[in-house]
UniProtKB/TrEMBL annotation:
Membrane topology designation: Single-pass type I membrane protein
Organism of derivation: Vitis vinifera (Grape)
Compartment(s) where it occurs, according to its Swiss-Prot or TrEMBL record: Membrane
Keywords assigned by UniProt, alphabetized: Repeat, Signal
Record's signal peptide: 1-38
Official protein name in the record: Disease resistance R13L4/SHOC-2-like LRR domain-containing protein
Coiled-coil positions: none
Domain Disease resistance R13L4/SHOC-2-like LRR: 95-208
Length: 349
């Protein structure tokens, strides 16, 4: 007897959902949950009162992107909208993860280039969760209060382009989480506090045109993570510190229009990450250009009126990234190396 065996027909394969789509879907659900939770949270009452008082004293108010229906921590303050967009100024950011998602704290505050006047109110000390404070390009006056040093979570403090006066408070040295400190273009007096040397996480330091002067404190030798240091047009005196040569992460260093005595430290030969070096208006002791031999990442080299003597080394022709070179008002001799004109990058000599 012949038995015919029928093969079971293959069931149609179900479409497979790529794992990446599942991950995106889960992420979307998570963000949706987070936003929903945040929308049900409210700003800590003491911070809400402080924010209202600060804005009242600065004659400013929230924008439509946040503070929806009278709750500051709504809209762009929690949903990730670009914090520094032009339409979102003044602006705050909140973290609403506290007390099981029922309480928000202000973590960022920006009042930027709004021509506001006044002083820093005492109420700012209430915003102890701040990690970001940017109030530059206004007309704020008075001293920089010492209580700023109690905002220990700050990673950015920018008060440049105002009219703050008095001494720079030593309490800033307590802000050990700071990565960016911008004090430039103000009317400070006295010397830089040595306590700023405690800011070991600092990546960017702007003290140009700040008004403070004197010698750079020796404690600054601890600022080994600096990538940008700008101190032009401030009355700094003494010698440019030799320890700056240990700041090997520096990409930009600017000391112009100061009262520094030469020479440029030979230790600067170690600053091989530099793309911009501007030092000018030195006096008393001359320097040569030997220290720049290995600084081949330079795109901008300005040593104007820096008592540079000797000749322009032929190795400058090897600086293929160099775009701007200013060696004017020095004591150079000899010819300009022809190799310097072989660089296709050089546009300003």
């Amino acid at each position: 007897m012949n038995v015919t065996v029928k093969r079971a027909s293959a069931s149609p394969s179900l479409p497979r959902c790529p794992s990446i789509i599942i991950l995106f879907f889960l992420l979307w659900l998570f963000l949706l949950f987070q936003e929903s939770t945040a929308e049900n949270a409210t700003l800590d009452p003491s911070e809400a009162e402080a924010l209202n008082s600060i804005f009242q004293q600065w004659d400013t108010q929230s924008v439509a992107l946040w503070n929806i229906s009278g709750e500051p921590c709504t809209g762009s303050a929690i949903n990730g909208t670009a914090f520094e967009s032009d339409d979102n100024n003044p602006a705050i950011k909140c973290d609403c993860s506290y007390d099981s998602g029922t309480t928000c704290h202000i973590t960022q505050l920006r009042v930027y280039a709004l021509n506001k006047k006044g002083v820093i109110p005492e109420e700012l000390a209430t915003l102890t969760y701040l990690t970001f404070l940017k109030i530059d390009q206004n007309y704020f006056t008075g001293p920089l209060p010492s209580f700023i040093g109690n905002l220990s979570k700050l990673s950015l403090l920018s008060i440049a382009h105002n009219a703050f006066s008095g001494t720079i408070p030593k309490e800033l040295g307590n802000l050990t989480e700071l990565e960016v400190l911008s004090l430039g273009s103000n009317n400070f007096s006295g010397n830089l506090p040595p306590e700023l040397g405690n800011l070991s996480k600092l990546r960017e330091l702007y003290i140009n045109s700040c008004g403070a002067g004197g010698e750079i404190p020796s404690t600054f030798a601890e600022l080994l993570n600096l990538q940008v240091m700008e101190g032009s047009d401030s009355p700094f005196t003494g010698k440019i510190p030799n320890f700056i040569g240990n700041f090997t992460r520096l990409t930009s260093l600017r000391f112009q229009g100061n009262s520094f005595e030469g020479p440029i430290p030979s230790s600067f030969s170690k600053l091989i990450s530099l793309s911009s070096l501007r030092i000018s208006d030195l006096y008393n002791v001359s320097s040569s250009l030997d220290f720049i031999r290995d600084l081949k990442n330079l795109t901008d080299l300005n040593l104007r009126n820096a008592l540079i003597s000797g000749s322009i080394p032929s190795f400058t022709g090897e600086f293929q990234k160099l775009q701007r070179l200013d060696l004017s008002f020095n004591n150079l001799t000899g010819e300009v190396p022809s190799s310097l004109f072989n660089s296709s990058a050089l546009t300003d000599l």
